[in-house]
Amino acid sequence: MPRYQRIAIIGVGLLGGSIGKAIRQRKLASEVVGIGRRQSSLDAALEIGAVDRATLNLKEGVAGSELIVVATPVDQIAPLALAAAKAAPESLLTDAGSTKASICESILSADPELASRFVGSHPLAGGHRSGPEHADGDLLLARTVVVTPFASTPPEIAAKISDFWRLLGAIVKQMTPAEHDQALAATSHLPHLAAFALSGATPEEFLPLAATGWSDTTRIAASDPALWRQIFATNREALLDALTRYEDNLGLLRQACEQQDWSTLEKHLQNAQRIRNALGD
Amino acid sequence: MPRYQRIAIIGVGLLGGSIGKAIRQRKLASEVVGIGRRQSSLDAALEIGAVDRATLNLKEGVAGSELIVVATPVDQIAPLALAAAKAAPESLLTDAGSTKASICESILSADPELASRFVGSHPLAGGHRSGPEHADGDLLLARTVVVTPFASTPPEIAAKISDFWRLLGAIVKQMTPAEHDQALAATSHLPHLAAFALSGATPEEFLPLAATGWSDTTRIAASDPALWRQIFATNREALLDALTRYEDNLGLLRQACEQQDWSTLEKHLQNAQRIRNALGD
After folding, report:
1. Which residues form a coiled coil (chains A, B) (predicted)?
2. CATH 2.60.120.1060 fits B180-278, yes or no
């Protein structure tokens, strides 16, 4: 017997499509319903087997769900979660947004009772591609999903959402929305900003001389500008803090180069290499 | 009949070892001699089939060569090329250093006649690994090698060095040492500096939340600090110019975030994405 009767996914892009595929491959629900704004995305999601049924109608799509996952761009998550919660008053809800405090706080302030039904999530998976055609049922395998309950969330509700992600193969970490945003500003949002700036600062006539180093360092600058504008906007303060730390560090390297203080420069590089090597390839 | 009787490679790390392997796999020389400073590297180079013969003695190693490739860290290239040129007075010479003006100018100023025997080269290949154990005979396949003749270099000598790299599968571009250094400051040296700074600015307690974006953007911060200190030092001015362009671009993104001018931010991101997409994955 599948664990869930019906799961609804709002937004069937790369992430929503991958979650749908993962649920269906693992037979975790009797039915996965996909809800989108464009028929072409819904058709693609059906085509690749990410959902059993697809609709443009939110109310109809979420009706009778036990769990709703909102996997849209960040600025649509709060309003869609609130509308979905109204249309499916028994359902648990979570999301897949890259920032958490802004989303979770707008939901809680609009409807404080949702603390017992909505728990924010952020699957650390995706990359610079988008669209259901790149969906992958194993996208979350061994990936981290951060789950961010409110202080007022009943622990068993946070546990249920955490279990859902674990059943898709993910490793779950729980923390507050603010802790999430501070950490992700440093590990994801700033790297994107830095990659966009590095690409944007490259004189195009030099591109034929770009090799692996440039490609790796700027790869995520191929990400969707409209999505990243929203992510930067909804995590602005933590991003600016992380950017200040980065500018300070760049400034130390600049100073060492300007003063030709190469042993100090090498010490900074060694420290950076040590931090990089703490992670794998 | 092999094209060359004897080629000597000074420095048998990742790049020197790969060049040796490539020459031997393509039967381009009757004998490849490896010259190094440590017996362990020479043993490894012999073991993986990068050289036919290996020696710690520079004079003995280069004697009778038609071509000498200096593939050591950048600060040793000029003195070793000068010593090798003396010990093998008939040989052509090239190098594999990541910066060119400083190296080529020290060689030319020490011995102006070497303009007819030494032509600088920079194979855009390698990456963040080092050591002959990662050597790969196909490392240069379809990669760019920049060849930087002096104004006084006879064209047939530059052509000979260019042909050598082409025979190893590379695509050759000729330009002046200064043009090379300007371009590579933007496409390689600055990305390394930015990656080191980004890694160094990451609070270590946040590392468990690093995903693909952070890994890609900081991958080259795993590179050898001692080698990169030399590269930064020998291309200091062009690197500082590129860094200024980068800081200016980062400053524009910061300003848009601070002023919450999200449509301007998105325009900058779109421009960066367009430049990034001009290259492949």
Report:
1. none
2. no
